[in-house]
């Protein structure tokens, strides 16, 4: 479904990502793990089109999307939830969600159905549909940005550290949401610093260090590799 080959990301003289190969099969949930500065967000933002690759290729099914504009990539079926959890604070939850359907803006009926489906799937958002997004808790805002990305009706969803800065009980809720999405057959690539959290839902994982993939395996293999946490994730 998603195939990344020999990807390189540069910021001027800094090579933040080099030689990265990642593949995600249809319906799979794959984690990209690593410590601060390992290059996880750079990899994700490059796949999403926000940063141009210095080298390498990205394919979504058979379509080459490497170096395409972010809007074109979303239209190809890949949506991204970045790290920053940006909502439109003065707009309601429902209005924020509708903005996520920008690329389908002429399909009013389809958007209405998709909005209803998402509100059914995530009742906490339904309860707050008419509340201003700026008044939501951090965890609820995280749920909102995930649901908003799904309004683009992606076949692949990229998530950048959805647990960042949230209390453990809230992280659990976000991960329940991700697990629910997995049962719908959505293909996901999930960036996390927290290895145990990500491995609780992931099928497979890649571990990044200093811009490179250092290790890859099934969630069970990574869990049983006792040194990985200490070596690459700082504990
Ligand atoms: N816009 C930028 N300009 C210059 N250097 C950057 C930029 N963005 C990231 N970097 C550098 O690239 C490297 C990888 O950063 P990146 O944000 O991809 O790491 P990360 O694995 O997502 O880390 P974190 O877990 O802290 O989010 C770091 O050394 C960082 O300083
Ligand atoms: Mg990051």
UniProtKB/TrEMBL annotation:
* Limits of the ABC transporter domain: 2-235
User: What is the name attached to this protein's record?
Assistant: ABC transporter ATP-binding protein
What family does the entry list? Belongs to the ABC transporter superfamily.
Query: PANTHER family of this UniProt entry?
Result: HIGH-AFFINITY BRANCHED-CHAIN AMINO ACID TRANSPORT ATP-BINDING PROTEIN LIVF
SMART domains registered for this protein in UniProt: AAA
Q: Which residues form the signal peptide?
A: none
Q: Name one GO molecular function term.
A: ATP binding
InterPro entries reported in the protein's UniProt record: AAA+_ATPase (IPR003593), ABC_transporter-like_ATP-bd (IPR003439), ABC_transporter-like_CS (IPR017871), BCAA_Transport_ATP-bd_LivF (IPR052156), P-loop_NTPase (IPR027417)
Organism of derivation: Ciceribacter thiooxidans
What keywords is this UniProt entry annotated with?
A: Amino-acid transport, ATP-binding, Nucleotide-binding, Transport
């Amino acid at each position: 479904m998603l195939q990344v080959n020999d990807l390189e990301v540069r910021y001027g003289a800094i090579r933040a990502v080099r030689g990265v190969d990642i593949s995600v099969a249809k319906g799979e949930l794959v984690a990209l793990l690593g410590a601060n500065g390992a290059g996880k967000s750079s990899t994700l933002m490059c796949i999403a089109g926000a940063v141009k690759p210095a080298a390498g290729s990205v394919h979504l099914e058979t379509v080459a999307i490497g170096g395409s504009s972010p809007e074109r990539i979303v239209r190809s079926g890949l949506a991204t939830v970045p790290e920053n959890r940006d909502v439109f604070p003065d707009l309601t939850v429902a209005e924020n969600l509708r903005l996520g359907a920008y690329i389908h803006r002429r399909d009013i009926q389809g958007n209405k159905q998709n909005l209803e489906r998402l509100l059914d799937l995530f009742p906490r958002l339904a309860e707050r549909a008419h509340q201003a997004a700026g008044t939501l808790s951090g965890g609820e805002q995280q749920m909102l940005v995930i649901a908003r990305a799904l309004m683009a009706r992606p076949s692949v969803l990229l998530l950048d550290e959805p647990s960042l800065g949230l209390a453990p009980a809230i992280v659990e809720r976000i991960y329940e949401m991700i697990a629910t999405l997995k049962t719908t057959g959505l293909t996901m690539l999930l960036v996390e610093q927290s290895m145990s959290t990500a491995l609780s839902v992931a099928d497979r994982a890649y571990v990044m260090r200093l811009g490179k993939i250092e290790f890859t395996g099934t969630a069970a293999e990574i869990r049983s590799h006792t040194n990985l946490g200490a070596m690459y994730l700082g504990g």
